[in-house]
Amino acid sequence: GLLGRAPSDPPGNNKPSFSAAFCFVSFNSLLGTHHQMADESIYNLIPQGGGDGDTSYQSGGTRYKSMYSDKVKRDLNANKKTGPAAHVQPPNQQHFLKRGEGVPKPTVAPEPREFVPSKPGVPRRDEKPVMGVKSDKDFLRENTIKAVTAVSKKPTGTVRIDAAGNRFNAEESGLVPKYTGKKDFGKTPSYLNRRKQETQQQQHEYEAYQQAVQEANSHYRLSDRERNEILQGLKANWDQLHKEYLGLPMVIDNPTKRNTKHRMEKELAQLEADIDKIERHAVIYVERG
Q1: Angle (deg, nearest 10), helices 255-280 and 224-246
Q2: Hey, which bits of the chain come out as E strands?
Q3: Which one of 71, 104, 198, 222 has the minimum C-beta count within 10 Å?
Q4: Exposure of 4 by Cβ count < 10 A (0-12 exposed, 13-18 middle, 19+ buried)?
Q5: What is the pTM of this model?
Q6: Which residues pair with 168 in a beta bridge?
Q7: What is the DSSP string of 12-74?
Q8: What's the distance, CA 122 to chain centroid?
Q9: What burial class does residue 237 get, using C-beta atoms within 10 Å of its C-beta: 0-12 exposed, 13-18 middle, 19+ buried?
């Protein structure tokens, strides 16, 4: 009633106006939009079954449950207990472990070892040795042959090392010249000759390198144009320095002026010597630097 009446209509006028009808339609459209928005939920996006008896995505479907889940829970709860197991009795302090009780005893006796003597046994008193055994070997003849055919031993020299008469082998003492009788005694060893040849070859290579470097850095002759340019430059330096020298004061009354005068005189003398050397020699060689 109040929603369908405009504010300007009289109270007795129940006929709805255009504004009231518009408000009523707008309110109904808002209610329909609200219901439509309520249906658009993320839970409604889940597919409700794939067809052909597929219930994997259906709401409230049966979940997979392993047949071992109950056993795993029982084992887990059983392992949470601390201390010894329930069926193990606690040790009695009156019956403590004594010596030898904790050592396990072998259930099977070891096999006896067979005795193997390392030497033949002593004959018993009732045993009799074999008698009457004779050999046909002529020991006198064999000993004579060995004595005749044996090589005589050379006497070893000895050296007395103290006043008490104690002697020492001469060959081991180092007093007997043993190495002088060798074939290569007094000859240069082969490794020394080889090392000498390698050293000489290295020396020749170094000398060849030094000669090549000297030839590359050898002196070269100045041309006439270069000689004249150097000479003119020295003369110009001498004129400039001589002009500065003539500008010095006549009275040298402090060390600074004295040192300046000596320095200029020394430089003038060096320039004059260089100019004279170049003028006296028409051919000039300069070292490569």
Answers
A1: 160
A2: 158-160, 167-169, 220-221, 285-286
A3: 104
A4: middle
A5: 0.28
A6: 159
A7: T--S--HHHHHHHHHHHHHHHHHHHHHH--GGGGS----BTTB-SSSTTPPPP--TTHHHHHH
A8: 70
A9: middle
